[in-house]
Amino acid sequence: MMLHPVGIIGTGKYVPERILTNKDLERMVETNDEWIVTRTGMRERRIAAPEQATSDLAYHAAVKALAAAELTAEELDLIIVATITPDMFFPSTACLLQDKLGARKAAAFDLSAACSGFIYGLATASNMIATGMYKHVLVVGAECLSRITDYTDRNTCILFGDGAGAVVLGTVPEGRGFRSFELGADGGGGELLRVCGGGSRMPSSAESVEGKQHFIYMAGNEVYKFAVRIMGNAAEEALRKAGVDKKDIDLLVPHQANIRIIQSALNRLDLPEEKCMINLHKYGNVSAASIPIALAEAVEQNRVHEGDRIVLVGFGGGLTWGASVLVW
Ligand code: UT7
């Protein structure tokens, strides 16, 4: 079978207008700006308007990615939305987005791999294009984490925000595009980061609401240790598979969970901070949307050029992780 080189041919992002600052959080829980900045690097996050749901954020990001790729929605063969905050159980957010976009020829499904979801989505889509099954696939990471955040829990509420990032994948000239993917999971660590309520194990009930089971629970310290180990491991494994040396990385686009986690990955890869896309001070952690928002912003800021070697790396609930090396 002939494999076609596959790459990103358009990027787009959307973040809601409303800003939640550290000062705002000081009025909601017992915390302070200094603690949040030194422990996480975060200063602000965006919060969706009451009438906005995940598919609305995804729509705005997707429209921009399609325009950048110079494609119409009708030219899409498939839409994948990576999210842990779908508009509803079903139909999938991808189907809702397909309808909003008028992408009537596209198949559509959601993918659940928490903060690693966007990289899982890229791996899935790029293989479908490489084998000739599809030509153009839209991959979106979109979240309304504010809807599953407990704003009385200072351990979690300072971290999360809302937003969406999108890319269009298609074939690219030889020598460019995705060089490797490294995906992994450790379901044994699932209880460290989860939302229990509302599923088939614990259907929604007055008790589940009372017990705050519909909000994110996170064992922050344990997740932190896992993150520090896995970011370096996953990135190094993706580099090894791609045959790219870490000194040749032009840009690292990591999941935006904590500045200290990103710094540990930079140390491990011997990379200076200038070679890393960091925007968590503006948006916090947007789970599956963090990496595509950061990538779209890197493109907007002219930080990626043809031929650059880019490493994407993320980790999250599941536990899951993913990394990819691509040539722009
Ligand atoms: O994408 C999803 C993956 N999630 C993550 O990557 C999160 C990974 N974890 C982290 O980023 C960090 O563990 C946190 C930022 C969540 C917490 O930072 P930490 O340095 O691990 O702090 P800690 O949990 O060890 O807490 C230290 C202290 C505690 O007080 P005591 O018990 O030492 O008296 C906490 O109660 O800080 C306290 N604390 C706070 N203080 C002020 C926890 N949250 C806050 C807060 N403001 N918001």
Layout of secondary structure:
Layout: E1 6-14, E2 18-21, H1 22-26, H2 33-40, E3 44-47, H3 54-69, E4 78-82, H4 93-101, E5 107-111, H5 117-130, E6 137-144, E7 162-171, E8 177-185, E9 193-194, H6 206-210, E10 217-218, H7 220-242, E11 251-254, H8 259-268, H9 280-283, H10 290-300, E12 309-316, E13 320-327
Parallel strand pairs: 4-5, 4-6, 11-12
Antiparallel strand pairs: 1-7, 2-3, 6-7, 8-13, 9-10, 12-13
Helix pairs in contact: 3-4, 7-8
The chain binds oxa(dethia)-CoA.
Region (ACP-binding): 256-260
Family: Belongs to the thiolase-like superfamily. FabH family.
GO molecular function: 3-oxoacyl-[acyl-carrier-protein] synthase activity; beta-ketoacyl-acyl-carrier-protein synthase III activity
Q: How is this structure best described in words?
A:
- This is Beta-ketoacyl-[acyl-carrier-protein] synthase III.
- By secondary structure, this protein is of the alpha/beta class.
- The chain has two domains: 6-174, Peroxisomal Thiolase, Chain A, domain 1 (3-Layer(aba) Sandwich), CATH 3.40.47.10; 178-327, Peroxisomal Thiolase, Chain A, domain 1, CATH 3.40.47.10.
- The protein is 32% helix and 24% strand.
- The protein is built from ten helices and 13 strands.
- The strands form four sheets. Strands 1-7-6-4-5 form a five-stranded mixed β-sheet, sandwiched between helices. Strands 8-13-12-11 form a four-stranded mixed β-sheet, with helices on both faces.
- Helix 4 links the parallel strand 4 and strand 5 (107-111).
- Helix 3 (54-69) packs across helix 4 (93-101) and helix 7 (220-242) packs parallel to helix 8 (259-268).
- It is globular, with a radius of gyration of 19 Å.
- 50% of the residues are buried.
- Residues 31, 35, 39-40, 115, 154-155, 158, 193, 218, 220-221, 223-224, 227, 257-258, 261, 285, 287, 316 line the site of oxa(dethia)-CoA.
